[in-house]
Amino acid sequence: MQMEELRKQWITSEKEYREGEVFVYRQKFTASQVKKAVFYGTALGVYEAELNGTKIGSQMFAPGFSYYPRRVLYQTHEVTELLREGENTLTVYLGQGWYCGRFLCENQTQIYGEQPAVAWILELEDAAGSRRIVSDETVEELESPYEYAGEYDGEIYFADGRENVTGHASAYTKEAPFALEPTLTEVRLQDEMPVREATVHGDVTILDFGQNFAGIVEIDPSFLKNETITIRHGEILNADGSLYTANLRKAKATIVYHAGAEKKKYRPRFTYMGFRYMELSGAAYQPGMIRAYALHTEMKRTGYFSCENPLVQKLYENQVWGQKSNYVEVPTDCPQRDERLGWLGDRATGAYGEAFIFNNAQLYNKWLQDIEDSMSPEGSISDVSPNYWTIYADDVTWPSAFFYVADMLYRQFGDDSAIRAHYPAMKRWMAHMEEATMKDYIMTKDQYGDWCMPPESQELIHSKDPARKTDGAILSTTVYYDLLNKMIGFARICGQDADISGYESLAAKIKAAYNAKFFNKETAEYGNNTVTANILSLRLGLVPEGYEGKVFSNIVKKTEEDFNGHVSTGVLGIQHLMRGLTEYGRVDMAYKILTNETYPSWGYMIKNGATTIWELWNGDTADPAMNSANHVMLLGDLLIWYYEDLAGIKCAPDAVGFKKLVMEPVFPDGLDEVSASYGSVYGEIKSAWTKKGGDFSWDITLPGNTSAIVRIPKKYNVTVGNLPGVRRVSATEGYMEVEIGSGSYHFGK
Fold first, then answer.
1. Which terminus in the chain has less CB density within 10 A, N or C?
2. For 51, what's the count of Cα atoms within 13 Å in the CB-facing half-sphere?
3. 534-559 burial, b if ≥16 CB within 10 A, otherwise e?
4. Residue 329 · residue 297 · CB < 8 Å
């Protein structure tokens, strides 16, 4: 009933569109003997509501970002404690946000609509149980304190306490075909980020927060009189200590605050920034004047990892911060420049690794709906979703995230609802791609290649050397083949057994055609023998039986001889590199790649000051147009490797949700201690091992209703006594295998 009423309340301004404009609405009403008060709000744009001067709820950027033509989100808040007996004032700030503000490097505005709109109702219940909806009172439009507000550019704010009435809100009469749905996830302020160092640099002060993150500034006006201060944000400093902003491209990332009569602390409502540094001008810095807060979509932290190697540990921490920085309404590519998009290719395997650190199920369930909502009538998937940058490239690799994320939700959380909900859309896309881009059972279309593989020169973004580039048809065909196999499993889950034979038949034909076209049986090389071409073929099951070892040998040789033990893959190959090396017995090479400190490597990033993950392996030297210092796409399967291989917290192949585990950690030379925990749907799983001074010990905790196969190398000479919970002990050539149930266990001294 409330939703029907809410739909009737859409209002907007009669003013002509002006980029960056913020509308302020005020509604005064009286209340008496109210037992319960509930606020319902939504917007085409971004809104923030205050009742009697106090913000309603803790969500930032409400109602949240969605594909507006299909669905718009709304909030429900009980506000009884904010209500006063007698006169009350509801104030609503409405910004343009993703709906019609400036977005993209192409400076587009009004992508979804011409003007923002907002709707709310306030339901009051008295002691007798009778309800009243505050909706028919006059809504005044006030003079806005914002000269400008936009996500990329920041805000220009006048703290002069203006409350002049300029008119009244107008009814928003445009057709609203979208569904109203409740917000499932909320962006909230998280950690306060203290200033680590303040340095006077000419006429400005540079504030260093010591960590690159996504967040906002808070200004305390008690430190100011009538000054106008300007705050610019950046991730990096120039060599002379000044703020580097070239990699922001067209994003201004600036706050201009005009101090005045208003003494309430200022926080931006309509923007956030990706930064480590702030540049303050217009007033001398004083401790307490400026604070900063990290923000990200609220979700439970579920995973932790620690080890004694400082580089390996620092890289883990950088991964965590990169993940948090890029959870803002949707899984974004970056938080700082004129982009901040839901690029699918960044999250294909990444979502899987991220799920070990945060319970990201709701975020990704919502994003899958955005992906389906953004599909074209023909069945194309937009490479960016929600598609406020519509790219129907009809490649395979980026849209594969639609399938891999759904599979992740099933494997990691035991939840098959996303597979069931989106199976028809997945089936439609598979058929569309078969028709649109398949020729002789080869997928011919590729848009991005093995994006951001290390180029031959550190000044380049993309390699120009054909020997380094992987054929796009190899990339698309291997991934499409893997998706066919995913669809076989999805069909079983959805009870669509009639589809299975078609997928199996097509997969067999693709495998045969692929090997006929790209595989050299004499050399066991795929295409031009890149690591990416070979490892995708190997891990995705396309290598003919008996040739697996030879193909893997080419991966090793290429890595050792041509790249001196360094990574040579881009965003596609890196999704399989660490696990592939480990599965075929080269943990030493995986660990070397992990711990390298020379270019190209994750360690190189850290040695050059990174506190998150760069967009490019050469992010310190490449063109500023694409050198975000806070990306996650080059992580590939690294987070998975940390938990599943280093810690041994791995769900068994025949189970989901960690109902059953196979715990078989790797123990690379040079790493003597690992401790990790993961909060699965059954409870917390812990794994902590040491191998110092010739002594080995391993502590394991399993939650209730779970079991594990534990494999301990025989070389550690561990004897398993009559421990409670041990169900079986057996031996293989290299391992002692122990089956255990829930409980805590200690193996070793």
1. N
2. 25
3. bbbbbbbebbeeeebeebbebbbebb
4. yes
Q: Which amino acid is at 648?
A: G
Please return the burial class of 31, using the count of CB atoms within 10 Å of its CB with bins 0-12, 13-18 and 19+. Answer: middle
Taking Cα atoms as reference points, which of 477, 480, 573, 561 lies closest to residue 519?
A: 477
- Max distance between CA atoms of the chain, in angstroms, equals 87
Q: Is 451 helix (H, G, I), strand (E, B) or coil?
A: coil
Judge whether 142 and 34 are in contact, CB under 8 Å.
no
Query: Residue 285, exposed/middle/buried by CB under 10 A (0-12, 13-18, 19+)?
Result: buried
Residue 439 has a CB neighbour count (10 Å cut-off) of: 10
Alpha helices (runs of H) in 10-119, residue ranges in sequence order: 97-100
Percentage of the chain exceeding pLDDT 70: 99
* Calpha distance 549→586 (Å, rounded): 12
Tell me the per-residue pLDDT of 304-363, one tens digit each, with 9 for 90 and over: 999 999 999 999 999 999 999 999 999 999 999 999 999 999 999 999 999 999 999 999
pTM for the complete prediction?
Answer: 0.96
Q: Write the Ramachandran bin of 546: left for phi over 0, alpha for psi from -120 to 50, otherwise beta.
A: left
Give the pairing of strands 290-297 and 204-219. antiparallel
Domains in the chain, ordered, with CATH?
A: 2-184 (2.60.120.260), 189-297 (2.60.120.260), 338-645 (1.50.10.10), 648-748 (2.60.420.10)
Nearest CA to 522 out of 545, 559, 551, 542 is that of 551
* Long-range CB contacts for residues 54-57, cutoff 8 Å, separation at least 24: 54/82, 56/82, 57/186
Whole-angstrom distance, CA of residue 427 vs CA of residue 709: 36
- Residue identified by tokens 């089936």 is 427
Query: DSSP secondary structure string, 303-341?
Result: EEEEES-HHHHHHHHHHHHHHHHTEESEE-S-SSSS---
My answer on whether omega of the bond before 600 falls inside 30° of 0, hence cis, is: yes
Q: Using CA atoms, how far apart are residues 699 and 674, in angstroms rounded to an integer? A: 11
The per-residue pLDDT for range 131-174, each reduced to its tens digit, is 888 865 689 999 999 999 999 999 999 999 998 999 999 999 88
How many CB atoms sit inside 10 A of residue 478's CB? 31
Q: What are phi and psi of 421, to 5 degrees?
A: -70, -35
- Helical packing angle, 472-493 and 500-518, nearest 10°: 160
> What does the pLDDT read at residue 323?
97
